[in-house]
Write a structure and sequence with these properties.
19% helix, disordered N terminus, alpha+beta, globular, 18 strands, six-stranded mixed β-sheet, single chain
Length: 371
């Protein structure tokens, strides 16, 4: 990437961040159906270095504290199943994260359950679809988080992924169900939480069945087109043509994808393999476990935050490192890069290679994507 491109990119990103900071919408009538459920009214202390629980969401004193906590989550709780350990103290104080709500919603594994699964709620625009488990850990189940004097609201079902930055002095109005756009001082931003569930682009570039033929960090020539949401697909059987064995008589699939998302003050990109089974009445549910999952990836590009020039990054993993081969697992993911900034955060990809191998009851599915 040459210097002219970088300067042009910086100018564009700076202009966008300023536009986001200043944009507001027209007033609308209050919508009482927007009232969050089960919220607390009094702040509760959690611990000295972390956020507090206030009004049912996490309250960070500053963006510096938010970034410090996210760094801790990514480094010390580097697998999704570990995040529940960090959440424990906050759960006792009335906090339910979006990530935990996914788990609770899918906890009923009875054969004839009729309550919709998390996947069904997402597809009905009733629940946020957040592919980054680490960000889903700091958002409450209704899509709220507070940083300093601003409450951020992420709602499912917004056409363009509209999110709201609401002055914290108006918390009573938020709790009473007043629409954010009618609250004085509210700013509107556009995030990856689109009205439809995350756009799932089919894999592009050089995709093949089997292992990587070159080093995971050997990139092809042209720069990749960037995408928002998830790029990947579903696999219903092994590479030998045999379908995956059914789970309690229900169809099983493997979903694999790379994600690239942005939520105003946080952006990330990463990889995931996840097993699903189809329930009889409620939709897809992630409750079946693969015998083995192996992942590796390598990506490079530029990260940008408001007030600074875009800077290059290169992130890679290897299945030979501890933690990149998993056994008896249904959800295996890794954040390759994340950035945080008070006004604007962005990740721009140049190349992204992804290789995985999954063994589900003797059926092996392996893919190599080079882009």
């Amino acid at each position: 990437m040459n210097k002219i491109y970088v300067k042009t990119l910086y100018a564009v990103l700076t202009s966008i961040s300023l536009l986001y900071a200043c944009k507001r919408t027209e007033s609308m009538e209050p919508d009482k159906t927007f009232a969050p459920s089960g919220l607390l009214s009094l702040p509760i202390q959690s611990n000295a270095v972390g956020p507090t629980v206030s009004s049912g969401w996490l309250n960070f004193t500053s963006h510096e504290q938010f970034n410090a906590v996210m760094k801790t989550l990514h480094e010390k709780y580097d697998q999704p199943e570990k995040l529940s350990i960090w959440e424990t103290a906050y759960n006792r104080q009335g906090y339910t994260s979006l990530r935990r709500f996914y788990e609770q919603t899918d906890a009923d594994t009875s054969e004839y359950r009729k309550a919709p699964t998390a996947d069904s709620l997402i597809n009905a625009n009733k629940l946020l679809d957040c592919p980054d488990s680490w960000f889903a850990t700091v958002l409450n189940k209704d899509g709220y988080i507070q940083i300093a004097d601003t409450v951020y609201s992420f709602r499912p079902g917004n056409e363009k992924g509209e999110a709201y930055a609401i002055p914290a002095k108006h918390i009573k109005k938020i709790l009473s169900g007043v629409r954010p756009t009618t609250i004085e001082g509210t700013k509107v931003h556009f995030s990856s939480f689109l009205k439809v569930p995350f756009i799932r682009w089919p894999e592009q570039g050089n995709e093949q069945i089997g292992p990587m033929r070159l080093s995971i960090c050997a990139f092809p020539g042209p720069l990749m087109p960037n995408f928002w949401g998830q790029s990947g697909g579903d696999i219903y059987g092994g590479d030998n043509g045999d379908t995956f064995p059914e789970h309690n008589g229900r169809t099983v699939k493997l979903n694999y994808h790379r994600w690239r998302v942005g939520y105003i003050f946080y952006a990330s990109t990463g990889i995931r393999c996840k097993m699903w089974k189809h329930t009889r009445f409620a939709g897809w549910q992630s409750v079946t476990y693969a015998d083995q999952m192996i992942m590796e990836a390598c990506c490079k590009g530029y990260a940008a935050t408001a007030g600074s020039s875009p800077y290059p990054f290169n992130s890679s993993t290897s299945p030979t490192w501890p933690g990149f081969t998993k056994y008896a697992e249904n959800n295996f993911e890794k954040t390759m890069k994340w950035v945080g900034s008070p006004i604007f955060s962005e990740i721009l990809l140049e190349h992204f290679n992804f290789h995985f191998k999954v063994n589900y009851r003797g059926r092996v599915a392996e893919r190599s994507i080079r882009q």
